[in-house]
Amino acid sequence: MQKASSFAILLLLGLLVVPPVSAQEMSAEEHSHMGGVVGYVPREVLERPITLRDNVGHVNDPVTTKNTEAQTFYNQGMAYVHSYVWIDAARSFNQALRLDPAIALAHIGLFRVFINLDDLKSAGEEVKQAQALQSAITDRERRRIEVSVKHLEAMQDLRDAAKHEAYKRALEGALDKNPDDLELWLLRGNAQEGAADGRGQRGHADSIAFYEAVLTRSPDNFAAHHYLIHSYESIGRNDEAEKHGDRYAHLADGVSHAHHMWGHDLRLVGKIDAAIEQFKIASQIESNWYKNDNLDPSLDWHRPHNLDLLSRSLQYEGRMSEAERYIREAMQLEPTTMYAAYNRKILSDFLIARGRYQEAVTAAMPMDQSMWALGRLGGHVVKARALLAMNKAKEAEAELAAAEKEIPECKKGFTGVVTFERIADDQLNEVRGELLLRASNQTSKPKANELLRQAAESLASHRGADALAELYLLEHIASVAREQQQWELAAHCAELMMAFDPNYFGARYAAALIAGHTGDTAKNYSEMAVARKLWSHSDPNLPELAATNQ
Questions:
Q1: pLDDT above 80: residue 151
Q2: Residues contacting 390, CB < 8 A, separation 6+
Q3: Which of 19-23, 331-335, 412-416, 519-523 has the lowest mean pLDDT?
Q4: DSSP assignments along 263-331, one per residue
Q5: Which pLDDT does position 11 carry in this prediction?
Q6: Phi and psi of 440, rounded to 5°?
Q7: What is the pLDDT of residue 267?
Q8: Among candidates 249, 252, 248, 244, which has minimal Cα distance to 228?
Q9: Phi, psi (rounded to 5 degrees) for 20
Q10: Averaged over 354-379, what is the pLDDT?
């Protein structure tokens, strides 16, 4: 039996203060599976006692237990799973197990947390513990364990389509026996994604029916609303996504990701100020959580992600000083995944956009020492782009070569729905094309234009809720094309930006400059006027804003 340790009892009584464990204190070796770490989170953090919260979304998923408090903590764990709050989900499941060590599905809850922390070994151990307890539980709970076995098998080989199909068939078989099990419907919607690691973020039209089946049975099911946001975003139905975002944020008001998701879609439907407000609410919820529970923010995957969209949204509005402040706050976090390591290029991206090229190179230098190849590649790419802006082609070429050298190692980390090409191809092709475009050899210009056009069109095709980085790189290509007198490419980029987001200052500004080049004075004037209006809340004295008055 699992009993509360003296350590846990002291925590509960407030007699022991546990310092936050910094992600920076973990070596590369410790990031691999160890008894003291699950994925990138110290096991001690995942086992810390937790209080009950009443604003994280309602879940009623009955398990075999006579302890009503244990049931409540289990339900809280499931609520946190559906909002991707992995740390507090694990803490809630562990609290349920302290109250009743025989709750088999609490181990399945931990299994779901651990697969999302990329620790399949620890996840497998939880499935085994659930199986050891299944003799005294209901058939419905046993089926959930059987489904988890198939899920684990598929997770262990994400490229094996047959195992993914076997997992989906197991879910369907369980649903045949328990058609009112909402958790099975939610899982089936997740499983409809391209690989078994789908968790509701990349569903399309074929996922929607499963989540709608949940809402038919439970109209205020916050989890279904959450997953529908992502699914509708994926198919470009931003109006529907925003409606579900509103419901999710109100049904799980105490969850930062709920406000973040609503912010996604407020931005996509043109309500950027309201989006920024939601991102700020999410940020404050997180700050309060870290302070109250004595947690290292670096251990929360959501922190850099929310700061990323908050800062880029402020940049979108021309509020550059505020944007930079949030970016620099994000840079204080220690990355815990290859994606977080790669996204540390956000500061250099911002500095390049502001014409601060040497600062951009300096900011990217620490990325050379990243433990992840993808992080190192990202650093080389932004350094190359900044060096090209300073006309240091040889140095930029060396950085591009260093980035390309990292590609084989980078690709090893991509096994599921997300591909290396989706993350990095446009970035690499932009540098390759810009390097050729700036070369004195005129024969390189057609190839340069081809690469940059390819990158621009690919960037413009990614119009999801997180796609501000794509918009800003598209804007950079347009700027380089104008500088290098490649007006056909510049005009094409301006058209792509207008189609991507006509409410962005940079899209209108680019269209105005093209009109000015072609002699269309009326359009130049009208587009500049729209651009000025769009940046009515921007910092004063921005060079681009001043240019709209000339």
A1: yes
A2: 357, 358
A3: 19-23
A4: HHHHHHTT-HHHHHHHHHHHHHHHHHHHHHHT--GGG-THHHHHHHHHHHHHHHTT-HHHHHHHHHHHT
A5: 34
A6: -75, -20
A7: 93
A8: 244
A9: -65, 140
A10: 98
